[in-house]
Structures are given as C-alpha cells and as structure tokens.
Write a structure and sequence with these properties.
344 residues; alpha/beta; 12 helices; 12 strands
C-alpha cells in the first residue's frame, strides 16, 4: 500500500487559497489573524489530518525539549542502564532522548555530537570513546551555549558538570578483598591508560598492594585486555608464567573476567581454590556463570537518574554559571564464588 503524504501548512494554504504565513499563524493561535479565518483554517487542518511538527516548531522558537546522549557502546550493560535511568527522568519531564553510539571511535563520537548540535538539543550527555582525539567538538558544544554533562569517561580539562564513579576506591576494595581471601600474586588486566577511569583503577590496585606490603610487579599488569577475547589471551599468557598469579583482577570489564574464567577452565585450573577472579561492572551474566563472578556494581541506573536530575534541578532551573560541580556515585563490591576461598 502506498504511504500517504504528510499534510503540510502549504497543502492547507493551497486548498484555501491563502498564504502559508496565515495558516501558520492560525495553527499557532496567533491573534494576528481574524477569528473567522482562523476557524476555517483549523477546521480544514483537522479534515486533512494535519499534525504539527513539534520539533520544527520548537527549533523555530529556540526551545527543543530534547536531550542527546553519546555512549561508546549501547549494548553494554553499564551504558544501557545509564540510558534507562536517564530516560526515566526525561520522560517524567516531557523531554525526548536521542541516543548516539561512538563504537569507541573518536570520529563517530564527533559525528554524533555534531548531529545533536544541529538538532539544537537542550543538553548533550557524553561518555567519551576509547580512541584518543581532540576535545574540540565538546568545546564547540559549550561555545554554542548547549549544556554538556560528562559521565564515567570524561575530559578532565573541560569545565562541565560531571557524574562519576570512585574508580580508585572500588579497585582498592576489590584488591583488598582478594588479599583478605589469601591471594598473594594478584594480576591486573588494565584498560587504555588514556582514559582516566582505567588510570584510577590501576592506582587503586597499586595502592591496595602497597598498603598491604605487597610488591608492585609490572609482569603482573597486562595492558588493554578489556574484551572477552583479550582477557582470555592475557590470562593464557599469565598462567604460562613460571610463577603464575593466583588471582586476576579484570578491572576493565566483566567480559574480560569471563575471558579469564574461560582460559582458566581450558587449563583445568580450579576457581577459586587455585585462581581467584574479580571483574568490573556487574553484568547480568556474572550471577549465572560457574562459579559466579565477583565484580563491582557501578549503580548505572542510578547514575543515569542523577544525570537527569542534575540537568533539571541544577542547570535548567538555576543556570550553570558558577555552579559547575561533580556528582559522585559510589560503586560497591559484589562478592561471589569466584573469590570465596577458605584461608589455609
């Protein structure tokens, strides 16, 4: 079936032999058109099933009740939950939410931000991509007087509102837990150090070892192991060492921890007796693996809600001048069977 063309103000104007500007005034309830003509236009618009393009109208008025969000990956539990939490708040306030995905690529991030700027959104929420690049596109958002909220992965030098986890403390608590369970050679799977969240998790790992009198060994730190495949490959190499680790903290993601579990299983290593495993992010699958995986819950839905409330309570109502601030959401260590080991 052929799709019917959407009725425009020009179609109504042509039918009534009126100027499009007259139709526009009537539809916007202007008092600059007489009541009889207005009534005729409204009646004709209803007969022609005219529906106003609210986005175009808002753009003309300089008011677009839309917030845009740019995330590295939509299908990751953390980011999808942040989106869900933010959408709860935007929906309550009658705002639309437009979602863009960078796929961890800087160029895609720039494209997404530019698309949102061109839509004249009221606010852009972003967690930056892993691929390194200039933050000029974010500065341009600020220069256009569009509000900008960064979360999780941020450009520290930009003066914006930020919603963050305490990554260093979470990593510190995870490694301390492993030490308390009797593990002595704890390896770290770390993410790209260009991103501050992974630097902070590494700092927490090092601080916990130092505070408990353990040496800091570069041989036990494996860079950029943040997918299941990379986690498995890193684990295979670590376990082939003459003196392998007895615990692995996959600070990058639970997907990396899943790779650790898989690689250890392939070598017949018992979890948690011989090897302890801790991940990060509390992906749903961590509860149902065998054994279940100890991880860090980032309270991602709550983070999304805090982002929304930050905009509506702090920025929209009162203005951002002299009120730039950072909101922290404290993560929580979730202890499961992959690290529960009886002390010898």
């Amino acid at each position: 079936m052929k799709r019917q063309k959407r009725t425009t103000i020009y179609d109504i104007a042509q039918k009534l032999n009126l100027a499009a500007s007259s139709v526009s005034r009537a539809l916007s309830d202007s008092n600059k058109i007489n009541a009889e003509t207005k009534a005729l236009i409204l009646k004709t618009a209803a007969e022609m099933n005219y529906q106003q393009n609210s986005m175009a109208s808002n753009l003309r008025k300089g008011n677009n009740p839309t917030i845009g969000i740019v995330v590295p990956r939509i299908n990751q539990y953390f980011f999808s939950n942040v989106i869900a939490g933010l959408e709860e708040i935007t929906s309550e306030k009658g705002y639309n939410l437009v979602i863009c995905q960078s796929n961890e690529l800087h160029a895609r991030e720039v494209e997404g931000v530019n698309a949102l700027v061109n839509q004249n959104v009221s606010c852009i929420v972003i967690s930056i991509a892993a691929e390194k690049g200039s933050p000029d596109h974010l500065q341009q958002v600020l220069d256009r007087n569009i509000q900008l909220i960064q979360f999780d992965r941020v450009v520290a030098g930009l003066e914006t509102f930020k919603v963050l986890n305490d990554n260093k403390q979470a990593a510190y608590e995870a490694v301390t837990h492993l030490i308390e369970q009797g593990y002595r050679r704890i390896a770290l799977l770390e993410g790209p150090q260009e991103l501050h969240i992974f630097r902070e998790r590494k700092e927490g790992y090092i601080a916990a070892l130092e505070d408990h009198g353990f040496p800091i060994l570069s041989e036990l730190m494996y860079a950029n192991a943040w997918t299941k495949e990379l986690g498995a490959a890193a684990t295979a190499r670590l376990l082939d060492m003459p003196n392998p680790p007895d615990a692995i903290f996959a600070s990058t993601s639970d997907f990396a921890a899943l790779g650790v579990l898989e690689a250890a299983g392939n070598k017949g290593i018992r979890i948690p007796e011989t090897l302890g495993i801790c991940g990060y992010s509390n992906e749903p699958f961590t509860e149902i693996t065998s054994p279940s995986i100890t991880t860090v819950d980032q309270f991602s839905v709550e983070m999304g809600r805090k982002i929304g409330n930050l905009y509506f309570q702090e920025i929209e109502n009162f203005g951002a001048e002299d009120k730039i601030k950072t909101v922290n959401v404290r993560p929580k260590l979730i202890v499961r069977n992959s690290t529960r080991r009886k002390l010898q």
